[in-house]
């Protein structure tokens, strides 16, 4: 589940271990400054006075932070770690009570869990009451229940998963969501088209449906046209993108689009395709694909036959090949 992957990741960060967390290396900065509620440790003295309060057998905040930032330090994070991880480690030095226990859920505005084999988006996510961005790319999620998503979400990225049905996601979706990323999944039209309307996503600005299996361009556009705030749309990689009038039809049908398939939609392009949306008869249900074979490996070189001596009685060998294209 997402929450299990989250706790596993935190354990790897060592937020409660030296030089982070609370311990003998910084106890004087926090033990004497308790919060009046529930006995939680407070923030301690102001940063300007922290150095003065350090005892001889303790480490200063600056020294502890240096252990995190120095790339030669055994406590430094790998160079490819996320800014979020680095921020959590620094917070665990300067204000360790904020990343202890359930307090940590209030710290996150953005949560990124990618490539962790996550299959379930569990209700534990509801503990992130301030969460605005949730990135769950490159996992194994096939279904996602909207009731388990924080209502504060503005960005939901599910790229490279196995989502094939949007019904559960659209039962009670986050009302303020502005970006929905569903690229590289298993969505098929027209069954899923009905879930891509303003009834479910009234504030959607950006939508990524790339590399799925949408085939009905007319049906999809009729649903997307209700998204009045939609400005960015990605549909490349779907079969419908092979239709000759694909881009022109979308540009004219969705006049508020600013970017289509990562390409800016300019005034000249709008004038060029003006009126195409009123001519659906130009939409053909077929596409032409040109396949060019540039190189073939593992095939015997026929030029070796020319090395035989003239008049030799060597047998003549004939090769035949079959190339199959599967669409």
Automatic annotation (TrEMBL):
Record carries keyword Repeat: yes
Any one Gene Ontology cellular component term annotated for this protein: cytoplasm
Disordered: annotated span: 29-49
InterPro entries reported for this sequence: Leu-rich_rpt (IPR001611), LRR_dom_sf (IPR032675)
Superkingdom, natural source: Eukaryota
Keyword Kinase: no
Protein name stated in the entry: LRC43 protein
Coiled coil: none
Keywords, ordered alphabetically: Leucine-rich repeat, Repeat
